[in-house]
Amino acid sequence: MRLAVITDIHGNWDALVNVLQDIDHSGVDKIFCLGDNIGYGPESDRVIQTLRDREIPSILGNHELAVINREYLAWFNPMARKSLEKTIEMLSDNTLSYLSDLERVLVHGEYRFVHGFPPDSPSTYRYEVPDYKKRRIFETMEEKICFIGHTHDLNLIAYNGETLTSELLVKGPSILSFENRYIISAGSVGQPRDGNNNAKYVIRDESAGTIEVRYIPYDITSVAEKILAAGFPGIHARRLL
Question: Which domains does the chain have, with CATH numbers?
Answer without folding.
Answer: 2-238 (3.60.21.10)
